[in-house]
């Protein structure tokens, strides 16, 4: 950091107290409806190499500090869905973390990029492929039944179509297993957690008969991580019939293209949700959304005022922030929140842990605690008061994934 940069930083830290009056007593409550907790990055792997320990506990603690009350974890393969349920089961039984992490729930399903697992070679040479597919479906079904009993599974998915990534799964296989998994979905009273990229017409062609013929017991469908344009959004919202509701969730990836940003006003406020899709889909400096972000404390991160106070009045931190040289270990605060941020290969060497009450963010790794940034951008783009935006997204998420009557198979 140059001396002018550190001067700027200390100046921006010291002027923060001015904005205290700007914050009200309002405390936001977030429901992050998309988090990939079994992703390798949360296990310390980057580019195939392990750099640090699994830190999901710290990631979850940080989420609750920043008002993330509930998280729907995404299952994207049979094994990942199972592992996700196991993580939730373990954490729920861990008395140490009863009150310091958000409420956790999970989906079960096979992502379009992973559906070739339905055709993995059988261990039994004589078994034909259809028998293997049946077995895999049965395993999914059993996992859902187990997850429902535990009150962990709250949605079926993610399932759908992804034509941006046909190199993982060819189109015909994506179509086949989207259809097959929708048939399985008809057995459960679970909302659908849907993934759709650049495939709107085929997506609608497959899912429409399930809606028109009233085949799904649960009438709530979420198309998550929306990255399309107005035309696609209109087509998706047009699916609403027979009391079915189409919800749309927005993350950093939804805010990277102007055409998607321009479409967002078409989403009715009672159909909108927000998510991080972490560790992916962060808001980047190069995105048109970035300019909407402001430094906390603000309506989206109000209680960070205290954290900032603590940090700005901490001589040691100020000293390190303003006197960094090439020789001393670096300390950088995230641009928008009073959390240190560090590169993944430096995480284990972070020397200032005792000065902060949360672990550093890792550069380029998204976390649920950053959902307030999504809320801020969406609130500003749609010109909706922060409280109204945040409360509606939470209410919609609770309506679909919160405590509900989960009727098992009939
Ligand atoms: Zn997805």
TrEMBL record:
SUPFAM superfamilies, A to Z: Metallo-dependent hydrolases
TM helices/strands, residue ranges: none
Keywords noted in UniProt: Hydrolase, Metal-binding, Nuclease
InterPro entries: DNase_TatD-rel_CS, Metal_Hydrolase, TatD-like, TatD-type_Hydrolase
Pfam families, alphabetized: TatD_DNase
GO cellular component: cytosol
GO MF, any single term: metal ion binding
Similarity section: Belongs to the metallo-dependent hydrolases superfamily. TatD-type hydrolase family.
Protein name: 3'-5'-exodeoxyribonuclease
């Amino acid at each position: 950091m140059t001396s002018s940069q550190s001067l700027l930083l200390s100046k921006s830290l010291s002027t923060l107290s001015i904005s205290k009056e700007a914050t009200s007593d309002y405390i936001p409550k977030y429901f992050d409806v998309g988090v990939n907790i079994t992703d390798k990055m949360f296990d310390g792997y980057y580019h195939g190499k392990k750099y640090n320990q699994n830190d999901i506990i710290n990631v979850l603690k940080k989420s609750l500090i920043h008002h993330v009350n509930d998280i729907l974890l995404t299952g994207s393969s049979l094994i990942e869905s199972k592992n996700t349920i196991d993580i939730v089961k373990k954490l729920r039984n861990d008395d140490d973390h009863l009150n310091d992490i958000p409420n956790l729930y999970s989906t079960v399903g096979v992502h379009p990029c992973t559906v070739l697992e339905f055709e993995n070679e059988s261990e039994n040479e004589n078994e034909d492929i259809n028998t293997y597919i049946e077995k895999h479906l049965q395993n999914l079904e059993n996992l859902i039944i187990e997850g429902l009993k535990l009150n962990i599974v709250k949605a079926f998915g993610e399932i759908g179509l992804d034509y941006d990534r046909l190199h993982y799964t060819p189109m015909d296989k994506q179509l086949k297993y989207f259809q097959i998994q929708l048939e399985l979905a008809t057995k459960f009273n679970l909302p659908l957690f849907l993934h759709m990229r650049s495939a709107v017409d085929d997506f609608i062609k497959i899912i429409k008969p399930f809606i028109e013929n009233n085949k799904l017991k649960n009438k709530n469908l979420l198309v998550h991580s929306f990255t399309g344009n107005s035309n696609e959004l209109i087509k998706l919202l047009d699916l609403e019939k027979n009391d079915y509701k189409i919800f749309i969730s927005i993350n950093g990836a939804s805010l990277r293209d102007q055409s998607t940003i321009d479409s967002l006003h078409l989403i009715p406020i009672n159909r909108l949700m927000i998510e991080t899709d972490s560790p992916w889909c962060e808001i980047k400096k190069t995105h048109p959304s970035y300019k909407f972000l402001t430094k906390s404390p603000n309506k989206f991160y109000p209680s960070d005022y205290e954290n900032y106070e603590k940090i700005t009045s901490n001589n040691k931190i100020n000293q390190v922030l303003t006197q960094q040289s090439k020789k001393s270990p670096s300390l950088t605060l995230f641009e928008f929140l009073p959390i240190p941020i560090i590169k993944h290969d430096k995480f284990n060497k972070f020397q200032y842990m005792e000065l902060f009450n949360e672990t550093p963010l890792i550069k380029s790794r998204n976390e649920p605690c950053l959902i307030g940034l999504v809320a801020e951008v969406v609130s500003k783009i749609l010109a909706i008061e922060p409280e109204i935006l945040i409360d509606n997204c939470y209410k919609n998420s609770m309506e679909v994934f919160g405590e509900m009557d989960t009727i098992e198979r009939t």
